[in-house]
Amino acid sequence: MAKGLGWINVMGLVAIIAGAAYVALGPTAGPLGCPKLVNADPKDIKYTGAGACAAGACHGSPAPKEDGATRHNENVTWSKKDAHAKAFTDGDKKGLGSADSKKIADALKIADATKSERCLSCHGTSGLSIGEGVKRFAIPAALQDAASKFNVADGVSCDSCHGPASKYLPSHTTAGWTAGQRKALGSVKLYDTEGLYDTKNLKFRANDCISCHLKIDADMLTAGHPRLPFELNEFSDGNKTDKDEKWIHWRDKDKFYGGKVWAMGQTISLREAALAAAEYVKAKAPAAVMTASVEQVKAHGIMSQQIAAWVDAGAAAELSKALGAALKSSAEADFAALAKAADAVADKLNDKAIDQGAVETLLKNVAAEGEQLGASGFAGGEQFAYGLSSLYSTLIKDAAADAKKKDGIDALFDPLGDPGTYKKDDFVKAAKALAGTFAGGKSIPLP
User: Fold this and answer.
1) pLDDT higher than threshold 80 for residue 136
2) DSSP state of 411
3) How far are the Cα atoms of 306, 429, 444 from residue 301, in angstroms, in the given order?
């Protein structure tokens, strides 16, 4: 495994996006012109807590079962290996009771982070509104089941990602029920009427993660809150073999599906980077903030052009046109238009099949973008290094590891460093050398 491939599972692909940006969820309401939901937060459906899923016959089995749709030990894996289970825990370095959290809360004039809705909305089991845009909120008592096993100290648990369970909890244990409801209702109505959030829908999955991992306000970052890890494939890859990566508690469709997951993460990240930039323009943000924001747009834009070219020629043309206009004008309206174009690509990508050949093509073409991405700044170098890592790790599950390629990906991480130590010239040199080991790719210049 190439250097950095293990680290990315812990730290992920850091997306430098802050501010209150709109997030569209599948075919939902809002500025992107999609139909509006009636019940953005499932009406009369309660949150039951992780304890409701912990029975041995449900998701609390001590040992995994490899037959069937689930392994039955998901609750055990989550509680013992998943950092989400420690998002609240007092004393944990990243928990709300930690010294670091207190410093951030003090800077934000929050008296107690463990009781603040702003903090609990991501560090505790939370509600997810998908009406006018994704909004995480701490669960009020009225939305908790009277017999709930909800415990705020459980951190980010089952209801946070899968939706409030009081209605679907008894039904989803019936073989075929979830698949049947998904087919009959579609992802939006499944959530709206049953409370079950459809993480099998990649666009829904990306937005679910983004609602916390990318939507961190600028004042929180200034106060010292870290930018959070997000690389959708590394977070979603249920085929991991490394023992340190076994925190993932689900299985995806097939061994090459990771390429599509990576592509969705990139496309949704471009949408969010563009929306954040639009917000910054509107708020007349400082020049340094705008510069970093535009750099992020450019980085995801270069990647997304390659993805769009694979997905749909018409959508690719619209994306490139919008990207060029936004980078040229830095106008609020043009960034908003770019977000809409990225969202359109994501919609088409959701229905796009992927196989080994498609992943190989994406990998070659992304490898050809190293010089352009590396020269654009740290954000571009970061997207390149981790994009290659993710795509290559998808392929090596079914192909003999190529030492030269692994070493080439390895060589990217030393000059990448972090925003303060990024060695652009050295990175570009390493990226150019690597491109030759993935022959056949073609760069798409920025418009």
Assistant:
1) no
2) H
3) 9, 22, 10
- pLDDT tens by residue, 376-389: 999 999 999 989 98
Q: Would you say how long the chain is, in residues?
A: 447
Contact 387, 263 (CB under 8 A): no
What CA–CA distance (Å, rounded) separates 356 from 360?
Answer: 6
User: Please, what's the largest Cα pairwise distance for the chain?
Assistant: 62
The DSSP element (H or E) to which 305 belongs, if any, is: helix 287-311
Q: How far apart are CA 150 and CA 119, in angstroms?
A: 17
**Amino acid at the residue 13:** L
Q: What percent of the chain has pLDDT over 70?
A: 82
State the sign of the Cα–Cα–Cα–Cα dihedral 348, 379, 232, 118: negative
pLDDT of 447 over the 60 cut: yes
pLDDT tens digit string along 312-362?
999 999 999 999 999 999 999 999 999 999 999 999 999 999 999 999 999
Three-class DSSP category at 69: coil
Question: What beta strand segments (E) does 304-359 contain?
Answer: none
Domain boundaries, the chain: 40-87+124-198, 212-435
Residue 425's Cβ-side half-sphere holds a number of Cα atoms within 13 Å equal to 0
Whole-number Å distance between alpha carbons of 156 and 145: 17
- Judge whether residue 39 has pLDDT over 90: no
- Distance CA(131)–CA(43), nearest Å, equals 13
